[in-house]
């Protein structure tokens, strides 16, 4: 598939990943270019036109809710405890989105600076 993203290739098993969590609807793996000691990406298993959060439709609300409901479990599986983590969604070029398959960044493992950017 010429339109396949790197995440589609990871889901297909064509590219290896360091899996942190998986269920029927989503997959989480460690980022290969982490911005913090712990940096995990959480993606829906089916892209189905969901390339950016701004393009989400009402019929995708259940999938988006599922992703959000799994963030805590993914963070725990990645070893992020009570100290906390940051959840980031980059949406579009100005936000530095480089893979157009919706994904959530779960970042932690150290005190994170604020404001970002």
Summarize this entry quickly:
A motif (Histidine triad motif) lies at residues 101-105. This is HIT domain-containing protein. The chain has helices spanning 6-11, 61-77, and strands spanning 19-22, 26-30, 38-44, 85-88, 104-108.
Quaternary organisation: single chain
Helices, by number, come to 2
Give the domain tally. 1
How many beta-strand elements?
5
What's the pLDDT, averaged over the residues?
93
Q: In the CATH hierarchy, what is the architecture at level 2?
A: 2-Layer Sandwich
Radius of gyration: 14 Å
Could you list the spans in which at least 5 consecutive residues all have pLDDT below 50?
none
Q: Major sheet, described briefly?
A: 5 strands, antiparallel
The level of helicity is 10-25%
The end-to-end distance, rounded to whole angstroms, is 34 Å
The H-level CATH homologous superfamily, spelled out, is HIT-like
Please identify the structural class as seen in this structure: alpha+beta
CATH topology: HIT family, subunit A
Proportion of residues in extended strands? 15-25%
CATH class: Alpha Beta
User: What is the molecular shape?
Assistant: globular
Pattern of helices and strands: HEEEHEE
**What spatial order of strands do you see in the largest sheet?**
1-2-3-5-4
Domain HIT: 6-117
Pfam families: HIT
Protein name: HIT domain-containing protein
Active site: 103
């Amino acid at each position: 598939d010429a339109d396949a993203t790197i995440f589609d290739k990871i889901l297909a098993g064509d590219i290896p990943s360091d899996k942190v969590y998986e269920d029927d609807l989503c997959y989480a793996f460690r980022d290969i270019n982490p911005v913090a000691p712990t940096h995990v990406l959480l993606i829906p298993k089916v892209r189905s036109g969901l390339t950016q959060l701004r393009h989400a439709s009402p019929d995708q609300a259940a999938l988006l809710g599922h992703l959000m409901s799994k963030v805590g479990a993914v963070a725990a599986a990645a070893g992020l405890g009570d100290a906390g983590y940051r959840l980031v969604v980059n949406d579009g070029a100005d936000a530095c989105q480089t893979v157009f398959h919706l994904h959530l960044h779960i970042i932690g493992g150290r005190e994170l600076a604020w404001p970002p950017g």
